[in-house]
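Sample A.
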Amino acid sequence: MQVEGLTIRRAEPDDYTALYEMFYSPKLYANTLQLPYPSHELWRRRVAEPGEGVHNLVAVVGERVVGMFSLHAFQRPRRQHAGEIGMSVHDDWHGKGVGSALMRAGIDLADNWLNLTRLELEVYTDNEPAIRLYERFGFEREGLLRQHAYRDGRYADSYFMARLRAPAQVTT
C-alpha cells in the first residue's frame, strides 16, 4: 500500500514538536523503551543534536510528521559494519504503508550509503505487526530477551532481531 503524498526525509530540528506529540500517545510509547510524558526539550535535543552516527528519518504526509526511523551506526572500530534501528508510526497511520516506506528508506541508507552489513533491533514479542514488518524486510529472530523491559506494571519479553547482507563488492 502506498500513501498518497507520503515523503521520507531527514528529520529537521523543527520536527521536534510533531515528534513530541506523536510519542505522547500511550499506544505508541508502550511499544518502545520510551517513558511516558516526554518533554519538548528532550525531543528538541534528540532531533537537533542526534549524536555521532545517528541518522533520523521522518515520514511526512503533507506537512504532518506521521512516523520516524532512527539508525544508529556504531562507531566502535570492530562494530562499524553494524547499526541499530528503531521505528515508530503515529497511531492514526498504522497499516497504511508508512512503516514499509520508512523501512525501505532506512535500509537503503544503511546498505547503499553507510555500507552497513548488519542491522539490529529489539521488538516486544507481543508486537506482532512490527515483527511481521521486520521479517518482510529480511530480519530474523536471533534470540529472546526475557524480562527485557518493564512496561505497564510488568516485565515484557523482546526478540533480538537482525538483518545481514553480504559486504559490498569493489567495482573497477
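Sample B, a different protein:
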Amino acid sequence: MTDEKGYIQFRCEWERASAPAGPLVAELIEVRNHLRGLGLIGVYPNGIGFGNVSARLTGHGFVISGTATGGVQSAGPEHFTEVVWADVAANALGCRGPVAASSESLSHAAVYGAEPAAGTVIHVHHLRMWEELRGALPTTDPQAEAGTPAMADAIAVLLRAGVPDGLFVMGGHREGLMAFGRTTIEACERLLTAWSRTASAGRGHAAPHSP
C-alpha cells in the first residue's frame, strides 16, 4: 500500500464494498468535519493529506477515514472504510469499503490493541501543539516514524505505561498527535481542550500546521 507521500507503508488487502453506515459512522463524520474546519485535519499545499479518525466496532475491527481524504472539505460515509483485521508484526491489514484504509491505520490498531477502553481514536496535525507538548505529555519514541510497525509498537509501549489524559504526541511524526476515548465525543474533547489551551496562550491562532 502506497501512502500519500508515495512510499510503501503496509500491505493492504482492500475489498471494494458499500460505505459503512450507522450512528457510529455519523458521529465520526461529524467530528471529522469539525476538525477539518479547524485545520487539524486537512491537506498541505503539496497535496499531501493529514489526519484521520476511527471508531472501534464489535470484535476486532474498526471504521476509519480513508487514505487521501484529508483534502475533502465535507466528508461522507463514502470516505470511510472498515478495517476487518490488522497485523502489526506483518505490516499488513485488510479493509472493505469504497476507499482503502489510511496509512495510519496500524497506529489506530495499536491503540485499540493496547487500550481496551478506547472506543475512538483521532489523529491530527498541529505543529505548535506538537512542539509544545512533545515531552510534556506522553510521547512515543522519536526514532519510530509515521505509518510504520515501529510507530505502532511505540504506541503500544506508551499506552501500556499509561496515558492518563487520553492524548499523546507522536515523537517521530512531526506535527502528529493522537487522542482516544471511550466515545467519539470524549476523544474529541480531550484533543480540543489541549488545542484551546494552545490557542489561548497565543500559539494556536495561526494555521495549525506548517506551511
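Observation for Sample B: The mean pLDDT is 90.
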